[in-house]
Amino acid sequence: MARILAYTSPGRSHLFPLVPILDELHRRGHKIVLRTLASQVELMRTRGFDASPIDSAIEAMEHDDWQVRNPLRSVHRNAKVFCARAEHDAPDLAEAIAKTQPDALIVDINTWGGLMAAEAWDGPWATFCPYPLALRSVDAPPFGPGFTPARGPLGRTRDRLVGPLVFGAVERRVRPALSRLREQMGLPQLTTVEEWFSNAPLLLYMTAEPFEYPRRDWPENVVMIGPCDWDPPADPPQWLSEVTQPIVLVGTSTEFQGDERLITVALEALAEEPVTVVATLPTGDLDQFEVPTNARLERFIPHRPVLERAVCAVTHGGMGSTQKALARGVPVCAVPFGRDQLEVARRVEVAKAGTRLPARRLRADRLRAKVKQAMTETEGARRIATAFAATGGAATAANAIEIRLLNQANPTV
After folding, report:
1. Do residues 208 and 255 share a domain?
2. pLDDT in tens, 281-301
3. Dist. CA 30–CA 35, nearest whole Å
4. What angle do CA 139, 141, 145 make, to 5 degrees?
5. Does residue 233 lie within any of the structural domains?
6. Higher model confidence: residue 285 or residue 104?
7. CA dihedral sign, ordered 287, 290, 293, 297
8. Residue ranges of the alpha helices (H) in 185-256?
9. Please, what is the end-to-end C-alpha distance for the chain in angstroms?
């Protein structure tokens, strides 16, 4: 069996979707070596992984994109953080490779330096992506603004004009820093996003059509495996069994982005509705909210048992929380604040699996109407759940790793 080294960025929203894949590979007898955020190392060791923290300098570089509301400026700020982290995650992963001598690598797509270290390594590797891929396509709109897919000549003209502005601006912004690092590592220079994503022999994409826009030009290295969602083991809260009304789950980002307003407005919007609101706030101050009698506010609870009782999930448009609800056939009301959330929210709307309300329009009456509308979209949510399940999830990912990277013709299913 193989020794597989997995390397993640400092975000639970990237580590947790990877866990089912690592679990499956471990179940098949492979040795899992993991480098991830320090707060999760002990938990990962309980799963049988040889886990250690990534360089602390990487975790010290926090995102500040929440301070701006312009989507393009937000992308630029995020790219600046990823470039700065790349100066550390490239040597950090290279050191881990030298120390552990793996047979294969699985590298987070958000570790830009880690991707270079994997490319420079003389061995098989894969990357994984738990958010919408920023790839140009003849069948999909330019990534970023959250456009609907083009229909007719005007839509295609929009994509042709806007695409170079969106992709070109980002590429020009990040190219100097990444080019310098690639030169230091002896790697050839890249100019486009497509080249960046096509370098990995295998790209595990954690979604599926038709939630992702169907397209004819997927790169050959892309394998769609569904959400692969995972929560740390935890017992359901005792109070959950006492809830008799339908549940609306409200959640914010696991990485701070100033989206607490979603909780405030949701509590107000649904205070008089015949539902129980269960709101979670992974970051921020719980004491700032006035909680009505039909609501509960928690720092964290396992979402799985709540979603089994939910009629709607109100999310910030994060790919993880949104797909976690849809994977259980629960329609979503997505309120995007930035990052990739504009794209996720639009996919919810286009798939008719829920509704979309931009954060700039967030108001109690509007959110209440959007939640009620989302509750009628159960058919679309169930269609997406069926599509996610059909991918095969972690087993499909493990098969791809064994066949494409380890040359095992008959993987254990």
Report:
1. no
2. 876 677 778 899 999 998 888
3. 16
4. 165
5. no
6. 104
7. negative
8. 193-198
9. 15
Output the CA torsion 310→131→259→277 (10° steps): 0
CATH number of domain containing 64: 3.40.50.2000
Residue 305: in which H helix or E strand, if any?
Answer: helix 303-307
Domain span at residue 351? Answer: 238-388
| Contact assessment for residue 320 and residue 14, using Cβ atoms and an 8 Å cutoff | no
pLDDT in tens, 254-271: 766 667 899 999 999 999
Residue 59 has pLDDT above 50, yes or no: yes
Smallest Cα–Cα separation from 130: which of 208, 61, 220, 22? Answer: 208
Is pLDDT above 90 for 65?
no
Query: Are 102 and 78 in the same domain?
Result: yes
Contact present, 257 and 64 (Cβ < 8 Å): no
Strand partners, 105: 5, 125
Q: Letter for the amino acid at 225?
A: I
320 is written with which tokens?
A: 């993880």
Tokens matching residue 347: 């996919």
